[in-house]
Specification:
Blueprint lengths: L5 E7 L4 H4 L13 H16 L6 E4 L3 H14 L6 E3 L16 H8 L1 H9 L11 H21 L4 E5 L1 H11 L4 H4 L9 E6 L5 E6 L3
Parallel strand pairs: 1-4, 2-3, 2-4
Antiparallel strand pairs: 1-5, 5-6
């Protein structure tokens, strides 16, 4: 670990029932599949192997992220740490796409339009949020609530969602809007960031392997 660094770990929840069914999920409160439970536990075991003792956890208002965090902490033997739940960390709201099969959405609006909604930075689906909109609620929460804990020396574990985590990864890794929309964040894959005292990234580790 680099000198004066602090640990921030980001983990996307394990596979949800709607991930499995290829449905747009967004703010719908969908639970984990059996495989998602396995992914979350495996993430906890990987973190345990790193020897990290967490001081605090953060998660969204959605059950798939909360349950993933609980399963990881169970594997870590650290279930008694304080956990904060906040909708600022919720997945991107897919609006009218929520609950639709992605293939059905392509049939209704056209593959090009659906791809634009999914993989552009600032184009929102009808009634929903763009990634830019999602970042506009995630980043202030990160700056006000999460980052101060990291900088004071706490080891922080965040269990959230593909797009809410993209907003954080964009800032941590200094990625452009074009770069971040292409960045895949796998379910149950811990991303470990070691931050310097000035909040820059001293070291990054991806535990996908």
């Amino acid at each position: 670990m680099a000198e004066n660094s602090r640990v921030l770990v980001l983990v996307r929840h394990g596979e949800s029932e709607w991930n499995l069914k290829n449905l747009f999920t967004g703010w719908r409160d969908i639970d984990l599949t059996a495989n998602g439970i396995k992914e979350a536990r495996n993430a906890g075991r990987k973190l345990k192997a790193q020897g990290i003792r967490f001081d605090v956890g953060f998660t969204s208002a959605l059950i798939r992220a909360q349950r993933s965090l609980d399963l990881m902490l169970d594997e870590l033997g650290q279930k008694n740490i304080p956990v904060t739940k906040n909708l600022a960390l919720n997945e991107r709201d897919y609006g009218d796409l929520s609950g639709l099969n992605k293939d059905d959405a392509r049939a209704k609006w056209g593959a090009e339009q659906v791809l634009l909604w999914r993989r552009s930075y600032d184009v929102a689906p009808p009634g929903g949020e763009s990634l830019k909109d999602t970042a506009a609620r995630v980043l202030p929460y990160y700056i006000q609530e999460i980052l101060p804990r990291v900088l004071r020396g706490d080891n922080v574990l965040v269990s959230a969602h593909g797009n809410s985590l993209r907003a954080l990864v964009m800032v941590l890794e200094k990625l452009s809007p074009e770069q971040i929309v292409k960045r895949e964040i796998g379910t149950g894959v811990p991303l470990i960031y070691k931050l310097n005292a000035d909040s820059t990234v001293a070291e990054k580790q991806d535990l996908a392997a």
